[in-house]
Amino acid sequence: MAWSVDRLGRSLQDLVGFLSELHALKIDLFLRQPGLDPPARHCSK
Fold this sequence. Notes:
Blueprint: H1 12-24
């Protein structure tokens, strides 16, 4: 478990490598922090 994805690597390349290693080991990643909340979700139409 990790609090936030930005704590998993120093760069995007590090993060992708780390996630690839987890995938190869069949390890699931759970992020405690909620996902992004896109602005479109709050727009009234």
